[in-house]
Amino acid sequence: MPSAFVALQYLYPKQLITELAGRFASAKLGGLTSSAITWFAGRYGVNMAEAANPDLTSYSSFNEFFTRSLKDGARPLAEADLICPVDGAISVVGALVGAVAGASGGARAGDRLVQAKGHSYTTTALVGGDAEMAKRFAGGSFATIYLSPRDYHRIHMPCAGRLVRMIHVPGDLFSVNPATVAGVPGLFARNERVVCLFEGERGPFVMVLVGATIVGSMATVWHGVVNPPRPGVVRHWDYPQDGAAAVYLAKGAEMGRFLLGSTVVMLFPAPGVAFERDWAPARPVRMGEAMGSR
Q1: For labelling, which of 42, 89, 223, 257 has a CA lying 20 to 30 Å from the CA of 168?
Q2: Dihedral angle of Cα 149, 150, 155, 157, to the nearest 10 degrees
Q3: Is 168 a catalytic residue?
Q4: Is there a catalytic annotation at residue 87?
Q5: Which entry of 81, 87, 130, 151 is annotated as an active-site residue?
Q6: What is the dihedral of CA 217, 8, 44, 114, to 10 degrees?
Q7: 256-267 as b/e: b if 16+ CB within 10 A
Q8: Which residues contact 87 (CB under 8 A, 6 or more apart)?
Q9: pTM of the predicted model, to two decimals?
Q10: Among 153, 156, 168, 217, which one carries the catalytic annotation?
Q11: Are strands 254-259 and 154-156 parallel, antiparallel or unpaired?
Q12: How far apart are CA 216 and CA 3, in angstroms?
């Protein structure tokens, strides 16, 4: 039985609330903007000492504050195959689960991601219905990291990669806090999201930026703001794999950002990832720390 908080989310106008919040966050309202930023930083305990610009009153819009950069050296990169791409807290990490009957009647490797409280969803659903893309990750691993309001909200590369495809998937805008994740089945495959497929030295990997209530938009460094617009249909972009137009990002390089925060889900192919031993649910993580090896 879902909690009252979760049940209420099925009823209130999440899209309208998010659009209004997005307009406010991008507006330059002088003293009102400064007051909102100061209140927010105090309410959530935002650490401005590590920001490149620690002066709360100098940000002209809430989005400018929310996507603030950090001081040089604030997030050193670990010597590891895979590094954590964001500041946040671990939701779930591990192997894709479940044996799924194949077309020939046999069984293929698991293709389900565990969410919470027994909920799970498929890789195909997560990437917006692209079964061929999802098939590349059968039997692999995944990691889900939640970004709270107080966190640094730029997203970086866990390893070097060349961009292959980006997909904007329309969907719901449920909150992604732990209570809602536990109460809404398949939440990360239901919410609006931006799916980014990369090709790395050791094979493909996917980074999914999941939207949520109040998340006005998501942006990538190669495209800019992806949403809005929200046309209500799946949109995709394919990218050249060589030449000057190819998009190649080094390990630790910024790849995107949330305009108000949410969740990042990553997929890696078989034989999967050996995650760091202390990577467990609810553990706080910081961008640049070791995540695991492939």
Answers
A1: 89
A2: -130
A3: no
A4: yes
A5: 87
A6: -70
A7: bbbbbbbbbbbb
A8: 147, 151, 152, 153, 285, 286, 287
A9: 0.90
A10: 156
A11: antiparallel
A12: 25
CA dihedral 35, 30, 219, 211 (to 10 degrees): 40
Q: 103 is written with which tokens?
A: 């077309």
- pLDDT tens string, the chain, 294 residues long: the values are 457 777 777 777 777 777 787 788 889 999 999 999 999 999 999 999 999 999 999 999 999 999 999 999 999 999 999 999 999 999 999 999 875 444 444 445 689 998 866 688 999 999 999 999 999 999 999 999 999 989 999 999 999 999 999 999 998 877 787 888 888 888 888 889 999 999 999 899 999 999 887 766 899 999 999 988 788 899 999 999 999 899 999 999 999 998 876 899 999 999 999 999 999 999 999 999 999 998
Both tokens of 32, joined, read 């009102």
262 included as an active-site residue: yes
Token code pair at residue 250: 């080094």
Nearest residue to 287 via CA among 235, 240, 252: 252
- Whose tokens are 């991008």? That residue is 26
Q: How many CB atoms lie under 10 A from the CB of residue 203?
A: 15
Residue 289 tokens read as 């720390």
